[in-house]
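Weekly sync, protein design subgroup
Attendees: M.S., D.O., the rotation student, P.L. (late)

Item 1: inverse folding check
M.S. brought a backbone from last month's batch and wanted to see whether the design step gives back something sensible before we order anything. D.O. pointed out we never logged the input encoding, so this time it goes straight into the notes. Structure tokens as presented (470 positions):
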């Protein structure tokens, strides 16, 4: 008979212990370790029983590629790599209330125009989902709707010859297996229920989408322990104070990663944004110092966004460095290079940096735009409204080249920009950018001092700004 043992599992990082303790040694979280029952089936290994031999096949064998299933939501198809792959598992994570259920209900309603879809909710009743569908204009969509939490019942319903082409489970934290004693949402329940549903999806050939909640503190062990089990991981990002929502691919076995889809939250649901650059720059003012337009790349899509900087005298012994939408470590590096290589001191001054629109930038190509915004704020000199900036800054003060410069320049030209501050282009890049060079005035920056020289260090610098620039 199998022996029942107790296992104490951290609900934050899934580390296991033989006895309870207040703090997790792995992640450092307090009061996150809960007791879960485990069955010790083979305490002495595999025993004397023999398994069957695994059959090996050559690497260059024939592949059966099923066509991708287009959802009808172009931004969602872009992030998934061109549509849904039959038999794949997709995890959609994000903060509670960010819009995960809304976007997937819209995807379910759009896909029913040419394929069957089932939406299984463990959080809301059927009438609640119908109310949301009516608000989104999807009341007449033939979506197969159910409210269930028992995985045994769900498997018995979907394990048929012709299952729906797409199954949405909202959310994985509410599902449970009745043969496990732990509560729904625990690490063991989340792992076991997801594994059971994913195995069924791969055996029957339908696509399954699992919704998982993650708080900003990371206390719910949902998507974090499932990322290695699924084929695609999508995170729905956005600030509650902004109307923009970003669907970002973190992992994708069937397409590119770091791809984003941009949506706008409206009264009628989430609307697709076909031109994010124009939307991010819609409220931009031309006569404000400390603002620079950065030409970035998100996946395969060029995105232009405004970077705003503010420098103010500090009343504190340690000046503040507040950053929204960018890496605070890179801001500290840019400030150090400005002081050490360009003689611009920011000691005793608070620095505030913001990426307008709620977008989060991770690529180092934004270094030059951040530096330009900081210098513009210090000297109180607005940058030219028709100029885009991009480039990586090294510790020696050099400006390094970045990838896909031609896409950045094409996007800038499409939106009406006439000039660009960019790093020196390679010989291959010069051939590719011949057309863009004839239309844009490109100022090549080899050193950070070259960018500083484009400002008037005497006309607009007065008081503290003049002292910092000298």
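Designed sequence read out in the meeting:
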């Amino acid at each position: 008979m199998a022996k029942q043992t107790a296992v104490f599992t951290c609900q934050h990082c899934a580390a296991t212990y033989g006895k309870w303790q207040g703090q997790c040694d792995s992640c450092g979280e307090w009061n996150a370790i809960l007791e879960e029952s485990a069955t010790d089936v083979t305490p002495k290994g595999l025993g004397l029983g023999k398994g069957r031999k695994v059959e090996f096949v050559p690497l260059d064998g024939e592949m059966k590629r099923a066509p991708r299933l287009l959802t009808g939501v172009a931004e969602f198809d872009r992030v998934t790599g061109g549509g849904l792959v039959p038999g794949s598992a997709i995890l959609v994570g994000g903060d509670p209330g960010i819009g995960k259920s809304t976007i997937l209900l819209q995807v379910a309603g759009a896909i029913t125009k040419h394929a069957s879809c089932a939406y299984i909710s463990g959080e809301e009743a059927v009438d609640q989902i119908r109310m949301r569908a009516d608000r989104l204009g999807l009341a007449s969509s033939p979506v197969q709707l159910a409210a269930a939490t028992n995985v045994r019942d769900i498997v018995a319903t979907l394990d048929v010859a012709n299952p729906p082409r797409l199954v949405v489970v909202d959310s994985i934290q509410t599902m449970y297996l009745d043969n496990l004693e732990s509560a729904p949402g625990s690490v063991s329940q989340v792992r076991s229920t997801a594994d059971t549903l994913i195995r069924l999806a791969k055996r029957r050939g339908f696509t399954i989408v699992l919704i998982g909640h993650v708080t900003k503190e990371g206390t719910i062990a949902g998507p974090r322990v499932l990322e290695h089990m699924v084929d695609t991981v999508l995170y729905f990002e956005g600030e509650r104070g902004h109307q923009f929502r970003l669907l970002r691919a973190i992992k994708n076995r069937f397409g590119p990663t770091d791809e984003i889809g941009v949506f706008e939250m409206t009264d009628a649901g989430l609307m697709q944004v076909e031109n994010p650059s124009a939307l991010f720059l819609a409220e931009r003012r031309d006569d404000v110092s400390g603002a620079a337009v950065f030409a970035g790349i998100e996946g395969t899509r060029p995105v232009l966004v405004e970077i705003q900087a503010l420098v103010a005298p500090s009343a504190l012994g340690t000046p503040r460095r507040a950053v929204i939408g960018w890496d605070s470590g890179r801001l500290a590096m840019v400030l150090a290079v400005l002081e050490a290589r360009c003689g611009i001191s920011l000691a005793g001054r608070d620095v505030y940096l913001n990426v307008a629109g709620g977008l989060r930038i991770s690529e180092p190509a934004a270094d030059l735009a951040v530096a330009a915004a900081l210098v513009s704020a210090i000297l109180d000199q607005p940058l030219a409204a028709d100029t885009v900036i991009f480039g990586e800054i090294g510790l020696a003060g050099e400006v390094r080249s970045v990838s896909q410069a031609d896409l950045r320049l094409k996007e800038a030209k499409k939106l009406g920009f006439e000039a660009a501050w960019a790093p020196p282009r390679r010989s291959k890049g010069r051939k590719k950018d011949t057309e863009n060079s004839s239309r844009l005035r490109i100022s090549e920056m080899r050193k950070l001092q070259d960018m500083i020289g484009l400002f008037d260090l005497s006309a607009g610098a007065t008081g503290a700004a003049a002292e910092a620039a000298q």
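Discussion: The first strand starts at residue 3 and ends at 10. The longest helix spans residues 187-204.
Action: P.L. to compare against the previous round before Friday.
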